[in-house]
Protein 1
Amino acid sequence: MFFSSNTTNITYLEIILFLSLSLWTIYGVIYRLYLSPIAKFPGPKLAALTSWYEIYFNVVRDGQWLWEIKRMHEEYGMVNCSLLDFSSRLKIAGPIVRINPFELHINDVDYYDELYAGNTRRREKYPWFVNAGGSPGSSFETIGHDLHRLRRNAVNSFFSKRSIVAMEPLIKSKLSLLSDVFQSHCAEAKPINLRVAFSSLTLDVISDYCYGEAFGALTDENLAEIWSTTLSQVMSITTIVMHFPILYKILSWLPDSLAGPVMGHHRNSRKLVARILNHEDVGGRQNTIFHELRDSNLLPPEEKTIKRLADDGNIMVGAGGETTAQTLAVLFYHLLDNPEMLLRVKDEISTLGEDITWGRLENLPFLSAAVTEALRLSSVVTSRLPRVAPNEDMKFQEWTIPAGVCMTLFHGRLYRFPSMSKALLTIFFPLTTFIILT
């Protein structure tokens, strides 16, 4: 005989494994296309079948998934209508599509308050999405409703108007350093990158507020460039890590020289938080976010670990600073591009004289209008933020969305959908109050 019993056993095992895998694959295809709770929703079959469809547009096509979703809404937006007594088909943007095996995308801004409901209704985050940030202990990446509320309530007061007003001396000291940077570039006739400049400003403000010491980007041009590069890296790898979360674990095992500035930022957060929790920062400022969290009664001891609080620090310093920097860069660009509007803002501010405070600035109508419009145009949240209603079926138009299904809206285009223009003009842009810079 040419085959031994061992060879026969191996062959049988291979056949069993092959058949099992084939049956599992067939079952998966049938379930996703026909048996899934969201099988009834419109959308391409390939997207319903596999997440690799999204991976292709996000990774291979370098972030084109947003535009593919827009195309899905257009392609699957055929609705019956009656026009002049003739039955016809009118192509409009479809209100809801299935964009992957587990997620629905809704193209209706009126549904925003329903999807992102407040504390009175349970909403949870989608694990696959939030795990991309690499900071699972942060309130931003917390999945469960109750735990998120606990963590969020502990930091809410630090970003209240009262707390920000109390920060005015700190903010003014950093603005003075930024003014020095602008004057230096002006004296040398050197162009300045507004994104880098404002990222340096917000980094030094938020790091000082979090840890009691600024990172020093406003006085170190090299650090400013490194930080700007770090933020760009974070944005570029997020969509990849979303699909392959093991990459963050691999990066965490590597030294900074190989892992790059992203993991270096995470390690620095742990070091700074550890100093505060271990009371090793004697002589420094004690009225920072993490000093207050350390001594807070709002959090139980298990919520005050170095890793957990360092994760919060990663998000606060990274995302918190960058959103403000982006808005400032957009604001300055449009004002510099519109000299008449710039002059009007400057004239309005000059009426305050030397006594410039936030309380007085926020009462300037034209400045407030410019800031509001910059917030709209800056698109500080450029991706979707999925939510799950774990305990209730959701109603959307004629559709019933089963409990536990992931749903989302794209925040980055929230204020730019053509269908929104009329509502936006009545809510955000009364002509006597606001300006439009575009």
Protein 2
Amino acid sequence: MKTKRYVELRILEAIEYIKYSDEDSWSFVVRVGDKKICFTGEKIEESELEKKNEAIERFTEALELMDFSVDKVQIIELINDLKVVKLFKYINECINELDSFRDNEITNTMNTFTITSNEFLNRNTQAYYRYDYTTYGTEGNPDFINHLKNQFGDTNVSTLQNAVNELIKVLQEDLPKIKSLHNTNLTVCVIPRAKAESHYSDNQKLFKRLISSVVDKLSGFTNGTSHMIRNINTRTTHMNRSGYGGDGDMPYVGITKATCKISSDVRGKDILLIDDIYTKGVNIDEDAIQALLDNGAKSVIFYAVAKTFKGGIKQIVRPQVINDDDDDLPF
């Protein structure tokens, strides 16, 4: 059993005890392998809203560190954070936070958020995503997104195939949910990659091709994956710091309209715009949403497979070249 789930169960057990205990402190032991780890804390009788929010925030932050297996030393970080959580007068709120976190982790449910208006976008936009993107290579991170990008064109076939399967599964689950929430036919468009379409080989275009394939098999969707085509290079923003951003401009207001051909078929349509990863502050997605609206789209809903979480995306170092034949790919 993963440490995450085991510790959750022990926390809940301790919480149930604390709720009905008259003692001024609490403690419980978690056994990990041959180690015994004692969690202790004090019941502090504070009623200020600030203290309540502090309890929930610290408890949630501790839970967010629980993405590791039994043998990993990160449990020490969890212990240190949990020891800070002493404000158990507000234990019911903490339980709700735990339930929400656990349910999301176990079921990988689709999440909602709002892309707020700014200089790139003149209105708030309803948005959805499936995964938190933390750091490439860490447990639980949706690394398959990076594999699908195939940034240097040398990802091996087996890795690409696994990534293909992951994306198909997510799209087949999430797109019908979005359709049911909005109860209207949606034309699916895709954020173009940073460079002109002609820059990429077929095995670097899998993301868009998979979306197209899935959409064609779903009812209530129109395939508009070719409605936005990049014809002028822009900077590859997530690779820029590592020196692999290439040529082209960084995002500026109107960059989508200046570097992409947008089909007149978007006019009057309710658009579902899809990207692989949403990163607040980069403004690529905001600018693309506005471009669709400026070209006559009736409305735009946004979906990303993942949304960057806190520290954001770790830069990818150039991988070792593996010479594999791509003929076995399904697309």
